[in-house]
Structures are given as structure tokens and as C-alpha cells.
Amino acid sequence: MKLTPAERGRWKFRLGSLGLGVLAAGAVFGASLAVSDDLRLMYLVGVIVLFCAATWMGAKSGRDRLSACLLYLPLAGMFGFLVLGQLPFLWPHLLLWALAIAIGLSLAAARLNRKGMISGVVILFALSAWYCMTYIPDRMKRATNHFGDGAAPEFAFQAVSEGAVPTTATPGKILLIDFFGTWCPPCIAELPEIVRVRAGLQNRRDIEFVVVGTNAGGDTPERLRAFARRQHVTLPLAFDQGKKAHAAFGLSGFPGIVVIDRAGRVRLTRQGYNSSEASFRGDLTQLLESL
After folding, report:
1. What is residue 56's predicted lDDT score, i.e. its pLDDT?
2. The CATH number of domain 152-290, selected from 1.20.140.10, 3.30.1370.110, 3.40.30.10, 3.40.50.720
3. 209 pLDDT above the threshold of 60
């Protein structure tokens, strides 16, 4: 069937919409790699790019639903494949991105009166503010923190740095273990927060900190020591040969934090880190002070 010039133009525009969708996906994941892995940044870049693209599309061709779908699919597909499988509670990313496209198309196509246009933008802004300031930080905290009161397994680390290095739990003292990888971007992003927690508790001699490397990713004691020297890390360093302690605490990924109280009970285990968990440092400090 031969297409009319108008139909050919419409399909060309739809292919262009798909190209814009690919660019939007590249902008979102590019910002995540180049700027920050903060999940809120990923959302905000996506909502801004999709809203602007949809507004332009609406001004050019009106409210074409297929074009809107083609704009949405590349980013939604990549996000679903790369992120949503690990963090399913981030499904509102997809819903709010779709809402941004719908509002952008409606604004440019003049399908809403002025009051409706303003209301749509205000609703999107309010939902985005709630999502970034409340929902994401709270759900990240729930997903990564696991509180308990079980007995700590027996373990003994190999000291890597000079000076006093806690290689096992000491009765009467609180121990924070940070399982770390020099190859792990979230570990590296989390480490300054651990340093700040320790600095805020420097007068508490009953709280010990240790950064523990493992064989994962090809790390060795020498590699951990060299990394600490380059990055001016002053926390005590140790090594968990064969990831024995890492596994004994029930951890499977990095970074991993374990907090052991004075009685040798595991009060916190957590895996993973994202800077969207805005209360991370305050919550960890509060826990340590409460033990």
C-alpha cells in the first residue's frame, strides 16, 4: 500500500520521536555515569528531557499517541532492564515519566485551557518533589538496612594498615565493619560518608571502625593499601581472605556494612549504597550512639 505524502511525513516524525527517546535514555544514563549515580538525578534528568521533547513534539504534530509511545519506550525499556529488576520500588519513575510526556504533549497541542495547563505542571512538580525528597530516600533506607540482634559469627581479619587495626570484635566495644572494593563505585562513593561518621564520633573510644577488602574484583592487601594511600584514607584497613567473614555475615554484594555491639551481637547489616539515601550518615551515627 502506497503511503500519501502526509502519511510518510507522519511516519518520519514518529521515527524522529524514537530517536529523541534514544537520546533521552542516553542523557539519563550518561548523567548517572558522568555526574552521580543518585537515583533522584536519574529521575529528574528523565522528567525534564521527556517533558521538553514532548512539548516540542506536541507543537509540531499535535497529540500523536504513537509518537509519545516511541519517545517513552527507549528510556522505559533501559530503566526496566538495568535498574527496576534490582530496585523494583522505583516503578514510579516510569509512571511519572509517562505523566511528563502526557502533560508536555497536551500543553503544546493546546488541548488544555490555561487553568488546566497550570494545574498539570503544578501536579507534576508536586509529585516530583515528594518522590525525590521523601519516597526514594525512605525506600532506599528500607531496602538496604537490615536490623537484628543475632550473635556475630567468629571471624578474624588480616591487618593491612599500620597502627591499631580491629581484626575481630572486642567485648565492651562497638565495631563497624565496612566491606569494601577498590573496583566498586558505590563503595568509593560511600567511603567519605563513613569517614565523616567516624570524625563525628572521634571522642567515642568505645566505637571502632575498619575498612575491609576481600578477594572480590581481584583486590589484594597491597591493592587496598595503595588505594588508601592515593585517596588519603586514614581509617584502619584489614583484609578478609576468601571472603569468609563477608559470607558469614550473610552478605553477597558490595559495599556491605556490619555493626556489632558491645555484647558481640550483630545490630545492623546493609548492602549497597546510593547517595539518594540522604539520611545515611545521620542514621548510622544515631545507631552507633544508641548502642
Report:
1. 86
2. 3.40.30.10
3. yes
Burial class (CB in 10 A: 0-12, 13-18, 19+), 49: buried
249 torsion bin: left (phi>0), alpha (psi -120 to 50), beta (else): alpha
Specify which residues 48 forms β-bridges with.
none
Q: Residue 231: in which H helix or E strand, if any?
A: helix 221-231
Q: Is the pLDDT of residue 113 over 70?
A: no
What is the rounded distance in angstroms from the CA atom of residue 110 to the CA atom of residue 16?
22
Eight-class DSSP state of 57: H
Integer Cα distance of 151 and 103 in angstroms: 54
Domain boundaries, the chain: 5-142, 152-290
Question: Looking at beta carbons, which pairs linking 125-128 to residues 24 or more positions away fall under 8 Å?
Answer: 127/96, 127/99, 128/43, 128/44, 128/47, 128/96
Rounded Cα distance, 70 and 11, in Å? 11
- Tell me the C-alpha distance between 238 and 227, whole Å: 13
What's the rounded Cα separation, in Å, for the pair 143 and 76?
A: 22
What is the three-class DSSP state of 240? strand
Task: Classify 183 as helix, strand or coil.
Answer: coil
* Mean per-residue pLDDT, 54-71: 84
Cβ atoms within 10 Å, residue 193: 16
DSSP string for 153-217: PP--PEE-SSS----S--TTSEEEEEEE-TT-HHHHHHHHHHHHHHHHTTT-TTEEEEEEEESGG
* Chain centroid offset of residue 25 CA: 17
Q: How many CB atoms lie within 10 A of CB 159?
A: 16
β-pair partners for 258: 177, 269
Instruction: Compute the chain's Rg from CA coordinates.
Output: 24
